[in-house]
Amino acid sequence: MGFTEKERLLAALAKEKVDRPPVVCPGGMMSAATTAVLSARADYQTDPAAMAGVAEAIRETTGFENLGVPFCMTVEAELFGSTVALGDAGVEPCVTEYGAAALADILRQPLPDPDKDGRSPVVLEAIRLLASRHKDVPVIGNITGPVSLATSVMDPMPFFRLLRKAPEEVAAVLDHLTAYLISFARRQVACGADVIAIADPTATGEILGSANFRRFVAPLLQRLAGEIRAAGAGLIIHICGDAKLLLPALRQVDGAAFSFDSLVDMRAAKQGLDQAPVMGNLNTQLLHTGEPQRIASVARLLLNAGIDILSPACGISLATPRENLAAFTSTVKELGSLDRA
Amino acid sequence: MTNPEILNALAGAVIDMDEEAARTAATAAIETGMPAYEAITEGLVKGMQVVGDKYEQQEYFIPEVLLCSDAMIAGLEILQPHLPVDHNAGAEKVVIGVVQGDTHDIGKNLVKIMLEAAGYEVHDLGRNVPLASFVDKAEEVGASIIAMATLMTTTMEGMRTVVEELKSRGMRERTTVMIGGGPISQAFADEIGADLYAADANVAVRKLKNRQVA
Q1: A284: nearest CB among B58, B153, B188
Q2: What is the CATH architecture of B93-210?
Q3: Chain A residues with CB inside 8 Å of B15's CB?
Q4: ipTM higher than 0.90?
Q5: Where are the domains of chain B?
Q6: Chain A contacts in chain B segment 128-157 (CB below 8 A)
Q7: Of A112, A247, A102, A90, whose CA–CA distance to A177 is shortest?
Q8: Chain A closest CA to B35's CA: distance in Å?
Q9: A117: which strand partners?
Q10: Mean pLDDT of A235-244
């Protein structure tokens, strides 16, 4: 019996039996909106139809089995006052000026309205367009994780000091930001997102340490997971860096699939997470500079490692060739069910 | 306090992230007539070395290292005016920055802190640094070391450009190029002809100290 791309991803997220693992690139921090896809296109950060068009072009040219928007991690930071350079086909969007000088500045700001403020309505409308045009392809909405958002709204250096100097105020700020992230995620689901992906590249074990992660980050991920599940969507949480030390804290987050960087041993991670679905983790430098044949053989190794959902290991370079991404996805599609049998 | 007690207090204040204790111990050092240079190298810097080890052993993380560095700076501010004018005349000069296209500077800032604690004169170009600026600055200040960081695979190729630029200006032989950051590896350093790859801030200092200077 055949799975549609949507059925396959949702089944993999729900730990149900599938014919083979899906191969996806969710969007957000892990977006395949490469220079090859973006050149000759315009307004894809600000116009819903153009944004949806890029998401469709990514799937058509690379073979990833999902549609994902947006293509950056700056939508939320802009809402909290940061200045963002939207970039172009060769440069990713990035924060150029922080919106807040102190924690209190963030707490003072009223929560933005996802339907009205900044580029959130663009993302929501793009999701609506994609969901209406593709019944059988999963639409993934992306949000920025709380710590990465906080450190995009204020300078990370004072923020990290405040983790120790003013832990309660930091927790209040992360709570405040998470309240917005929940409302944004819920609206994405209401507009047709089948899955929400959260990436928090600043909240790594190497940067924060596992004690801070357990104290400040894990409770927020639990809250986000509960709300997103209640809204009826699947959930992917991407953790950057060597996540080994964080596995006990992540085990407390129910109902999510966890995506890891290429240096993580996926078998060990899955075991450490009580068999929660794991996603990953094709080295992004290999995707950028490797030969398609080598990418195909590494993809085959990943298939044999029992990974539930295949994907790049982290954010991919804008200069990644289309052929390399296609070599990855076609290998999974051709060999996924064979290797499993 | 005896001199060993003062030195211990200086190191301990850094390790304990205690700015106030660092100021108190630094003031005590001046009052007892201890040379400021000794208080810095045998007190504050010894403490920062312990911090570096704790960071490498994953006992301390970024928040802790930043606060330890604040305590070290609090002590330095009191001790530095008492240093002889030429105390740092022989220090090796480092130009450091995050390469163009990347604004992630957490790792770079840590390397800068540890290099300064180790006695290097650091010229920080900040983040999103135009590639030619690394070589320009090294030439201007007479730096023998260029240290570059990036977190992004998109921008790592820029490091190769800097190495090439050093060659074309005839500065390659006298400049040590050190690179680091998330996607960077020893293999990449070898590929682009960089001299050193450092996995973290503590390793960066160790590799620079241990290298054979031609």
Answers
A1: B153
A2: 3-Layer(aba) Sandwich (3.40)
A3: none
A4: no
A5: 3-82, 93-210
A6: 152-154, 157
A7: A112
A8: 31
A9: none
A10: 93
pLDDT in tens, A210-239: 999 999 999 999 999 999 999 999 999 999
Positions in chain B short of pLDDT 70? 212-214
Query: CATH topology of B3-82 equal to that of B93-210?
Result: no
Whether B56 contacts chain A with CB within 8 A = no
How many angstroms separate the CA atoms of A93 and A96, rounded? 9
Average pLDDT, chain A: 95
Closest Cα in chain A to B55: A206
DSSP B49-92: HHHHHHHHTTSS-HHHHHHHHHHHHHHHHHHGGGS-TTTTTT--
CA distance A211 to chain B (A): 10
Q: How many CB atoms lie within 10 A of CB A190?
A: 15
**Domain B3-82 is found in CATH 3.40.50.300:** no
Handedness of CA A317, A321, A322, A326 (dihedral sign): negative
Q: What is the pLDDT of residues A261-315, one digit of tens each?
A: 998 999 999 999 999 999 999 999 899 989 999 999 999 999 999 999 999 999 8
- Residues of chain A contacting B106 with CB distance shorter than 8 Å: 156-157, 160, 207
| Residue contact A206–B153, C-beta within 8 A | no
- Domains present along chain A, CATH in parentheses: 5-340 (3.20.20.210)
Q: Which residue has the tokens 């307004």?
A: A43
How many other C-beta atoms can be found within 10 angstroms of the C-beta atom of residue B85? Answer: 6
Distance of CA A91 to the CA centre of its chain: 19
Statement: residue A83 has pLDDT above 80 = yes
User: Are A285 and B153 within 8 A, CB to CB?
Assistant: yes
CB proximity A209 to B under 8 Å: yes
Chain B residue whose CA is closest to A242: B182
The full 3-state SS of chain A, as one line of letters, equals CCCCHHHHHHHHHCCCCCCCCCECCCECCECCCCHHHHCCCCCCCCCHHHHHHHHHHHHHHHCCCCEEECCCCCHHHHHCCCEEECCECCECCEEEECCCCCHHHHHHCCCCCCCCCCCHHHHHHHHHHHHHHCCCCCEEEEEECHHHHHHHHCCHHHHHHHHHHCHHHHHHHHHHHHHHHHHHHHHHHHCCCCEEEEECCCCCHHHHCHHHHHHHHHHHHHHHHHHHHHHCCEEEEEECCCHHHHHHHHCCCCCCEEEECCCCCHHHHHHHCCCCCEEEEECHHHHHHCCHHHHHHHHHHHHHCCCCEEEECCCCCCCCCHHHHHHHHHHHHHHHHHHHC
Shortest CA gap B127–chain A (Å) = 11
pLDDT at position B123, please?
Answer: 96
